[in-house]
Amino acid sequence: QVQLVESGGGLVQAGGSLRLSCAASGRTFSNYAMGWFRQAPGKEREFVAAISWSGRSAYYADSVKGRFTISRDNAKNTVYLQMNSPKPEDTAVYYCATGHTAVVRISADEYVYWGQGTQVTVSS
């Protein structure tokens, strides 16, 4: 059974930095792409970033491009989201997710397994 556990959320000031981690277990981590999504109160879940199985390909939402970086360590079965210069509008619950594909996907419908989420609050 695939399990995803996020950590690293919290309160951060706008312009600061925060790194989220997602530890995966239950299958061969390095075979599959990983993604980060977020959901703010009263809003739908939205795509943030995704990374291919090898880490060589990544894709970002326009709203975070140039500020956030997704990476992975296949030896540690962990994917990261480095959040630099966060803004108050980045406040949300952040989820990591994975599916059955090795390549980047941006639609939540293509992700099967989800973590429980970690709260990120950016103060102005």
For the record, give the distance between the C-alpha atoms at the N and C termini, rounded to a whole number: 40 Å
Number of strands: 11
Uncertain stretches of 5 or more adjacent residues: none
Task: Assign a percent range to the helix content.
Answer: under 10%
The major pleated sheet works out as:
7 strands, mixed
Q: How does the overall form come out from the CA principal axes?
A: globular
Secondary structure category: mainly beta
Q: What series of H and E elements makes up the topology?
A: EEEEEEEEEEE
Description:
It is a single chain. With 124 residues, the protein is mainly beta. Helix content is 0%, strand content 49%.
Observed structural traits:
4-stranded antiparallel beta sheet, 0% helix
Helices and strands in order:
Blueprint: E1 3-7, E2 10-13, E3 17-25, E4 34-39, E5 46-51, E6 58-60, E7 68-73, E8 78-84, E9 92-98, E10 113-114, E11 118-123
Parallel strand pairs: 2-11
Antiparallel strand pairs: 1-3, 3-8, 4-5, 4-9, 5-6, 7-8, 9-10, 9-11
